[in-house]
Design a protein that fits this description.
mainly beta, 0% helix, ten-stranded antiparallel beta sheet, Jelly Rolls
Amino acid sequence: MSDPFVRRAGAIESDPVDAADGLRKAVLLDESDGTPTLALRRFTLAPGGSVPEHTNAIEHEQYVLDGEYVVGIDDTEHTVSAGDAVHIPAETVHWYRNESDREVDFLCAVPTGDDTIQLVK
């Protein structure tokens, strides 16, 4: 069993995601913190930014904090905005595009463990 804790905003770092254009990721909680079943991340996608088509070995759930962007899931594009929630099953092709002139932020929760990411193209 892990011990409870609070990670303050000033202790959270955000790093660019190499495979994407204009995407930054901040790991809020993961196994290194002792969270045994769930990892929580915050993503920021810059205006005009995009994430190429890819799959993940694990499912993930997302919650849009601020802004509006397009998420493609299989053959369907969805415009999502603050307050919307998204479920992407494991091994499902998906991608992101920010067509707005402002940053968008979303949370992403995933099961802990290995996650193999495969670019589609």
